[in-house]
Amino acid sequence: MVYSSKILSLSQYPVGISGHHPSIIIRYNTPAENIFFGSRHTIAFTLKYPSLKLKTMKVAILLGSIRKGRQSHKIAHYLQNKLQEKGLTVDLIDLLENPLPMLEERVGMHPALPEEVQLLSNRLHAADALIFVTPEYHGSFSGVLKNTLDYFNSEFTKKPVGVVTVSAGKMGGINAANQLQQVILSIGAFALPTKLLVPEVYGAFNDSFELTSEYTIKSANKFIADYCWLAEAIYQKKHQLSSSL
Question: Where is the NADPH-dependent FMN reductase-like domain (predicted)?
Fold first, then answer.
């Protein structure tokens, strides 16, 4: 029995057929008495492609503390170093060094958008994933971070966002973290379920901004692992091989 084949096209199948992997449709010309009840049938083959590497991703860490004597910057720099060790490009956006005026109107609606707002918008747009770092003030996250988030919208759309909070007490800013995750959902982003809480922050780091608490180190390692998993999954989804390749 002789079969002839011809590649007809490259296609993307929906979930449940080929799991979003690129597939080649091959049509076989077969004898009429073939058991598939016809002279032609089509078979789809899934081609596996290698995982897109994390090192091609860019992460923006938004540091939401400008207070004198602040402590949040320590965990921001710690995460920057750990993510860079994994090969990611990290843009640490310190709102102390990149202050924005109090919100009058959002990006896209402002009649005369301040230059510093546009520059920050560009940096956020360039990021594939984000991390928000904030202290807890009066049971919530910082006002400077809220003011910054309110300026933007499309900069966050369908991007994974991790939440990191610090506090002087033993709870690590959990109230701020919970509220910030709700805001992340409201801006159209994907909130990482795993939160990184840094309790008793004044004694949590050495002079090199390295964590000293075994408990917090373990929490940070889990946060980083979960964050990279989610960020890579979303990144791959956005960068699947197109049907024209």
Answer: 57-199
Same domain, 131 and 41: no
Same structural domain, 42 and 58: no
Residues 130-141: pLDDT tens digits?
999 999 999 999
Distances (CA, A) of 39 to 29, 44, 106, 138, 231: 6, 17, 61, 74, 46
Domain co-membership, 126 together with 39: no
Cβ proximity of 84 and 90 under 8 Å: yes
CB atoms within 10 A of CB 89: 16
β-strand pairing of 89-94 with 58-63: parallel
Tell me the pTM: 0.78
What pLDDT digit, counting tens, does each position of 103-148 carry? 999 998 988 999 999 999 999 999 999 999 999 999 999 999 999 9
Cβ of 29: how many Cβ atoms within 10 Å?
13
Distance CA 7, CA 46 (A): 13
Element (H, E) at 181: helix 174-186
Two tokens, residue 144: 């400077």
13 and 93 housed in the same domain: no
Three-state DSSP class for residue 150: helix
Number of H helices, E strands in the chain: 5, 9
Residue 244 lies in a domain: no
Task: Identify whether residues 166 and 205 lie together within a single domain.
Answer: yes
Shared domain for 13 and 128, answered yes or no, is no
